[in-house]
Write a structure and sequence with these properties.
With 158 residues, the chain is an all-alpha fold. Helices cover 58% and strands 3% of the residues. The longest helix is centred in the middle third of the chain and has 17 residues, at 46-62.
Amino acid sequence: MPGRILTESERERLEQFPAEITSEDVVTYFTLSASELELVRTHRGNHNRLGFALQLLILRYLGFCPDELTTAPATVVAYVAEQLGVMPDVLAAYGERTQTRTDHFLEVQAYLGFRRAGLRELRTLSGLSPGRLNTISQHYCCRWQVKNSMLRRLYAQG
């Protein structure tokens, strides 16, 4: 039986928004480019534009997108909403139709160049076990694998 690399609480923490995002990071990572603004504006409704933009920026920033966008830091939502000229509270109406979120997420993945991980890549990622990590920190190795996958723009269906 494969060993667990992360504890349940560590895994949960890595699947959520960071507890804090600095104002410098908000500006650096959550500013929409002209081409991104153009793409976002192809979607109908302020709530859809804001939700789509957040998925785009969050996936690029974190390498994944938490299921609940409404848990995004208020500073991030407000900053993105300001760029779109919409009120941040319209986010509450985003994704009332689950298929909309899914369609948007697939579009965002394609736009950012993400692709589904192949069998060889999944085997490499699943091959990590505490016994094989030896003297190297398990947490460091896991973070490295996550970053490495992000750089390759891979994703696995979870």
